[in-house]
Structure formats: C-alpha cells, structure tokens
Write a structure and sequence with these properties.
Blueprint lengths: L13 H7 L8 H14 L7 E2 L6 E2 L5 H17 L23 E2 H8 L20 H5 L2 H11 L2 H10 L7 E2 L1 H4 L2 H4 L4
Antiparallel strand pairs: 1-2, 3-4
Length: about 190
C-alpha cells in the first residue's frame, strides 16, 4: 500500500508506517524507519494503483512491461551486489547476428498468429473436422494441438527428424526446428 498508493504525495515517515500497519502491531521505531526508507526509495519506480471506473476504490496498475522494467533492474542490481546473480532476470533478449532465434510458439500461438477471423487468414479444422473458431478449442485436446501443427507443417517429417535425434515432438515450435524450417513445409 505504501509504494502503490496514488494518494501519498509526501515523504513517508516512521509514524505513518506505524499508523498504516495492522491494529495492535508492535513495530519498533527502527523497523518503522526501515520500512519508511524502503518505501520512499522504491515509490518512484513502482506503478501506482488506478481509480476504478465506478469510483469505488482502486484497481491494480496497468499490466505493461515498461511499467515493471525499473523495479526489475533495481532487483537485478541488488541480486548481483549480494552475490546472487543467477537469480537475475533478463530485461530484453540479447541478440547476436551469428545466432538463430526462433519464435517459440505452441499450437495456440500458431493458431492466434495465422488463423484469426480476419481476411487473408487460414481456416483450420479440429480433429473432428469442425472449424476451429477460438484458441480454447485448440487447447481442448492434444489431438487438436497436433492438427493445428499438421495444418502448416509436414508432421511426418517433423517426427522423423526428431526421432533421428532421439527426441519426441511435444507440439511446441522451438528454435531447434527453426533452422530446419525449409525442410518441414509440406511440399508434396
């Protein structure tokens, strides 16, 4: 509440922390000062809550990566300084011109990318021959996931290539397959 409140415009003092705590708390002055210092330091980097459309309270802030990036960068800095760099998160991918980067899509991702209701998009039928009209139908069975993939890729070739490398295709388009893309399209 102290860091997300849009109504707090002043510096947070230890007394305000004590008043904002649960009834009957027994926080020490030092604990309240630490919380006040943390809240004052982090407030500029935390997205604020928004008023609800019905003016009855507040709702969470917009769910957008740009609003969360500052706190991720601060957390990464603290983790590195404390010796826990293996817990840090990448803020954005680090690309190299020498590497292949495949877009990781599952059956739902492929359906949403290529099969929307807009013009010039593909129609895909489920395992029963019915037209798939939303992503929930894709998720309803593994047969439907396989059908979506089979609508765009030669799955016998995918299975054969995976089998040659001791793998089983699990209905997910991964970078391993990306560089072999030209061999997977149905050409027959």
């Amino acid at each position: 509440m102290l860091v997300e409140s849009p109504n707090i415009k002043r510096t947070i003092e230890p007394d305000y922390v004590r008043k904002s705590g649960f009834a009957g708390n027994d926080f020490t002055d030092h604990e309240c000062q630490v919380v006040a210092d943390l809240a004052n330091t982090l407030r500029p980097f935390i997205p604020k809550r928004r008023k609800r459309s019905d003016d009855k309270g507040f709702q969470s802030s917009l769910a957008h990566v740009a609003l969360r990036a500052p706190i991720v960068m601060i957390a990464n800095s603290v983790l590195r300084a404390a010796g826990y760099s293996h817990f840090t998160q990448k803020v954005s991918p680090q690309l190299s011109t020498a590497s292949l980067h495949g877009l990781q899509l599952g059956a739902v991702g492929i359906y949403e990318t290529l099969c929307s209701r807009n013009k010039r998009q593909f129609d895909v039928r489920d395992s029963n021959g019915e037209l798939i009209t939303n992503y929930l139908t894709v998720q309803s069975s593994t047969a439907n996931e396989r059908t979506v993939f089979a609508s765009f890729f030669a799955m016998t070739k995918v299975d054969r290539i995976c089998g040659e490398h001791g793998l089983i295709f699990r209905d997910r388009w991964v970078p391993l397959i990306t560089h072999a893309f030209r061999y997977l399209l149905p050409m027959d």
